[in-house]
Amino acid sequence: MKKKLSKKDINVVLNKLEKLYPHAECELAYNSPFELLISTILAAQCTDVRVNKVTSELYKEYNTPEKILELSQEELENKIRSCGFYSTKSKNILATCKILIENYDGVVPDTREELMKLPGVGRKTANVVISNAYGKPAMAVDTHVFRVSNRIGLVNGKNVDETEQQLMKNIPKNLWTDTHHRIIFLGRRICKARKPICEECPINEECLYYKGKVM
DNA sequence: AACTCGGGGCA
DNA sequence: TGCCCAGAGTT
């Protein structure tokens, strides 16, 4: 049924995305790998705008594992409540801070395997941290990347893991991180989950979803 | 694969 | 009021 784009069209899409969003970056505000880690944990099922609003206050006083562990779970919950899932996230963040101090001398590890051992850190969050904070190639697949890349036809993945594998195979390694951010930009502004604005989409000529819609 | 955690923004 | 948001963990 649904097919993937040709290699040629994939390159066209990547080039258009690069011209469209040449300086795409992580929109979570952070000043250290630790801050990015905590912000990304908070970002689960929550907009980055709200995360930044919470962390801009939180990090003034609490920007290290040691500082955050000065807070009780209830105190931390009250500070991050507006990010949603505050109970789970608070518990995970406190547990993660404790592990960072006990096992990593307070330094956020730079490998996906070590990061994913931390409570509240899954594959997506780990990929965001190693790619943005440590400059390592990684393809983080969130809801935007999953939806858009499959909708366009960059990949044809049944789930997040399949999608990540296919994206890494179809996209040059040096473009993984930038492409991740560019797809998010496109996904939020145009290729939205509900009512994608296909008429204004710069890559609708290549998009399999758009072609399917007009046929 | 399905279910749970969740407040806030927006139509 | 209903739907959705830079996911992860458990069953």
From TrEMBL:
Name the Pfam families on file.
EndIII_4Fe-2S, HHH, HhH-GPD
Q: Which residues bind [4Fe-4S] cluster?
A: 191, 198, 201, 207
Top-rank taxon, per record: Bacteria
Under CDD domains, the record lists: ENDO3c
| Catalysed conversion reaction | 2'-deoxyribonucleotide-(2'-deoxyribose 5'-phosphate)-2'-deoxyribonucleotide-DNA = a 3'-end 2'-deoxyribonucleotide-(2,3-dehydro-2,3-deoxyribose 5'-phosphate)-DNA + a 5'-end 5'-phospho-2'-deoxyribonucleoside-DNA + H(+)
Entry GO MF terms? 4 iron, 4 sulfur cluster binding; class I DNA-(apurinic or apyrimidinic site) endonuclease activity; DNA binding; DNA N-glycosylase activity; metal ion binding
* Residue span(s) of domain Helix-hairpin-helix DNA-binding motif class: 113-132
Cofactor names from the entry are: [4Fe-4S] cluster
Q: Print the keywords alphabetically.
A: 4Fe-4S, DNA damage, DNA repair, DNA-binding, Endonuclease, Glycosidase, Hydrolase, Iron, Iron-sulfur, Lyase, Metal-binding, Nuclease
Q: Name one GO biological process term.
A: base-excision repair, AP site formation
- Co-factor binding details: Binds 1 [4Fe-4S] cluster.
- The keyword Transcription regulation is assigned to this record: no
State the InterPro entries in the record: DNA_glycosylase (IPR011257), Endonuclease-III-like_CS2 (IPR004036), Endonuclease3_FeS-loop_motif (IPR003651), HhH-GPD_domain (IPR003265), HhH_base_excis_C (IPR023170), HhH_motif (IPR000445), Hlx-hairpin-Hlx_DNA-bd_motif (IPR003583), Nth (IPR005759)
Residue limits of the HhH-GPD domain? 42-189
Q: What Enzyme Commission number(s) does the record list for this chain?
A: 4.2.99.18
Tell me, in a sentence or two, what this protein's role is. Answer: DNA repair enzyme that has both DNA N-glycosylase activity and AP-lyase activity. The DNA N-glycosylase activity releases various damaged pyrimidines from DNA by cleaving the N-glycosidic bond, leaving an AP (apurinic/apyrimidinic) site. The AP-lyase activity cleaves the phosphodiester bond 3' to the AP site by a beta-elimination, leaving a 3'-terminal unsaturated sugar and a product with a terminal 5'-phosphate.
Family named by the database record: Belongs to the Nth/MutY family.
Q: Which NCBIfam families match?
A: nth
Protein name (record): Endonuclease III
